[in-house]
Specification:
By secondary structure, the protein is an all-alpha fold. The protein contains 28 helices and 2 strands.
């Protein structure tokens, strides 16, 4: 049994409330410099999510769509986390202000620190070690990704549910307890999927400190409540994802996805060793640990990790009855890490420091327990205070790295130079800061990013580095003497053609997956790639291929207005004003006849012999002369037909049908 906490000994804090206040101050000291930070990585997407504006339609989208909507295929369903952002945006009136979201993250972390303190009191039965365990966890640098990055909200909420649910189970309030546990557990799994470990942690406690048989007999309703939350998760996910595109995590995000069984799991074991190292020595932190190359049988790091993990498991198993606390700590770390370890299921990431947010709690409990076994307790306190100060200093220094993509990539690339994502992030940041002044540095970083994945099979690669590199080469061509321009455009073309090969391979593979699942077919390509390809073809004077590329991009997403602008340049450059007119009318149908589009259309009609009558003045503006200009109806119907076909190519049959109906009913076009 865990020792009673009714008579704390050793390090004294007069009351639990005083302990909580001190813990809050400690956590605040570690994270106060995060409150004024901006948005980095995924945080930008989450805070700018259009669903945060609370409406009935947006609420439905939160409940019926995946976490990263409108992006498809991520397989994540976290409506509670998204609703927490709605709480910031709508109920607290924070809008898109990052500071408020950072503050909310800290409040959640502070509450979790208090819950860890309560749990540690049950574990140690003493106020001193319980306080230090909570304090160490409050400032551990490995937690910065979950606390300082707004995207870590899911980890904070899941931990809140896990810790709160476990404490509720341990205190077993009786009537109403199982229902409360079910509510907490269900909220947790809909905040982040790894909250499903709660039932395992309940069993771990009983295995460590109680008689499992009697605990199950006495508390079976709590176990049933936790299990019921998992059934709800499975049922809701089935209903939601049966209507969505199938899951296809990018191979470049986790190379274990394409590895054979033994290589993938051997690499996952190597990652466990790195996890333990970072928990003990959180010095070289990074937002991306790509795990390339994969572990081989001769990889010494994998063997060392296996030896360390095996030794820990053997030791705590042998001493389970004599040392239940360390058995519990090892079990807690293993259970909370298991869902993201890639040992059970290969997930979308090989490794992430955010995965260690809750496992770090078990680590600090173990460290505190071991140090408190020193003969002189004041030495233990001195060592723990020193460790806490070191952790705090590292956390305070790490927080500013999460200010934006520029600071994050600058901090992390030196530690993980083999991360293509970090190299790409740095290239994009440099280009955004000063496209002209930083073009050479942006090219160098994007070339480094591309080099890291260039050897991958097209279907397992990424279009982002080659597409952006092709764009940068084209931009560089505008800055060099005319004699050198063609060489840069040819480099741009070669790179964009590689990006197109990758895009086609990925889309083909995803089409096979969608058909296998009987899912609604969606496009998995990016129209910007084909727009860039078309622009490069135009600079090389190959207008037919430019038009072909941009028309293909239109078929991916007809709402991409830049495609129509590019097509207009190509058509007018070749004197094909007829096609330019129809193309601009397509754009007008997409952008709802914006004045600038209609003005451009009128100018194009002036280039056609029989186009002078296309517009008539109406008040201060101009409008189509449908009745008095014979060619206008034909052009409009041609635009409707072309745009309808583009929507069919984009696999948007509803939009295509609506266009076709409008063409017939509003303009009298023939039915297609």
């Amino acid at each position: 049994m865990a020792r009673s906490r009714s008579s704390p000994k050793g390090f004294t804090i007069n009351s639990k409330w005083r302990a909580r206040a001190v813990l809050l101050v400690i956590a605040l000291a570690a994270y106060v410099n995060s409150f004024g930070l901006g948005l980095a990585q995924d945080s930008t997407v989450l805070v700018k999510d259009t669903r945060l504006e609370l409406t009935g339609d947006n609420l439905r989208l939160i409940l019926e769509r995946n976490y990263w909507w409108p992006a498809a295929g991520d397989g994540l369903y976290r409506p509670v986390t998204t609703l927490s952002f709605v709480f910031n945006y709508w109920f607290l009136g924070n809008g898109r202000n990052p500071a408020a979201y950072h503050l909310t993250n800290f409040v959640l972390h502070a509450v979790n620190v208090w819950l860890v303190y309560e749990l540690a009191l049950l574990l140690f039965g003493r106020a001193g070690p319980a306080f230090f365990a909570a304090a160490l966890w409050a400032v551990h640098p490995i937690c910065t990704e979950s606390v300082t990055s707004i995207a870590g909200r899911a980890d904070l909420l899941a931990a809140l549910a896990i810790l709160g649910g476990l404490l509720l189970y341990l205190r077993a309030p009786g009537k109403g307890g199982p229902l409360a546990l079910f509510t907490i557990a269900t909220a947790g799994v809909f905040a982040k999927e790894n909250a499903a470990v709660l039932i395992g942690l309940m069993l771990l406690w009983d295995l460590s400190f109680r008689s499992v048989k009697s605990a199950l007999a006495r508390n079976w309703q709590y176990y049933a409540a936790a299990a019921a939350s998992l059934l709800v998760l499975v049922a809701v996910r089935y209903v939601v994802f049966s209507q969505l595109a199938p899951v296809q995590p990018p191979y470049v995000d986790n190379p274990l996805l394409g590895a054979d069984f033994w290589t993938a799991h051997w690499t996952a074991i190597r990652v466990l060793g790195l996890d333990l190292w970072l928990l003990a020595f959180p010095l070289t932190l990074s937002s991306d640990h790509p795990q390339r190359p994969l572990a081989t049988l001769s990889d010494p790091r994998a063997w060392l990790a296996l030896a360390v993990v095996a030794a820990i498991l053997a030791l705590v198993a042998m001493r389970r009855r004599k040392d239940p606390l360390l058995f519990w700590a090892a079990g807690f770390l293993g259970i909370t890490l298991l869902p993201t370890s890639n040992l059970l299921v290969i997930i979308g990431a090989a490794m992430g420091e955010r995965f260690l947010y809750l496992p770090a709690m078990a680590f600090v409990v173990a460290i505190t327990a071991l140090l408190y076994r020193l003969k002189t307790e004041r030495y233990a306190r001195a060592a723990l205070i020193a460790l806490m100060v070191l952790y705090m200093v590292r956390t305070v220094s790490r927080n500013p790295d999460w200010n934006d993509n520029a600071s994050l990539s600058s901090a992390d690339v030196p530690h993980t130079p083999n991360s293509f994502r970090l190299r790409d992030m740095m290239a994009q940041t440099l280009f955004a800061q000063d496209a002209l002044g930083n073009i050479d540095r942006a090219i160098a970083e994007q070339e480094a990013s591309w080099h890291l994945i260039a050897a991958f099979p097209p279907a397992r690669s990424s279009t982002i580095p080659p597409t952006l590199l092709g764009q940068y080469y084209a931009d560089k061509a505008e800055l060099v003497p005319p004699a050198e321009q063609r060489g840069w455009y040819e480099k741009s073309l070669a790179m964009l053609l590689q990006a197109r090969e990758i895009s086609q391979a990925i889309e083909k593979m995803y089409d096979v997956l969608q058909r296998a699942h009987g899912a609604p077919m969606i496009r998995a390509s990016n129209p910007q790639l084909y727009l860039s390809l078309g622009n490069t073809y135009m600079h090389l004077g190959d207008y037919p291929r430019a038009i072909e590329a941009m028309r293909f991009g239109q078929g991916i997403n007809p709402r991409t207005l830049e495609v129509y602008d590019g097509l207009n340049v190509a058509y007018t450059a070749t004197g094909n004003f007829q096609s330019a007119v129809v193309n601009t009318e397509e754009k007008a149908l997409v952008d709802n006849f914006q004045p600038a589009t209609m003005s451009a259309l009128r100018e194009l009609y002036l280039n056609l012999p029989d186009g002078q009558c296309a517009f008539v003045q109406h008040g201060a503006g101009w409008e189509f002369n449908m009745a008095g200009c014979p060619r206008v109806k034909g052009d409009v119907c041609a635009a409707f037909a072309a745009l309808t076909e583009a929507y069919r190519e984009s696999r948007s049959p509803d939009s295509a049908q609506q266009l076709q109906l409008a063409a017939v009913q509003q303009y009298g076009c023939p039915s297609q």
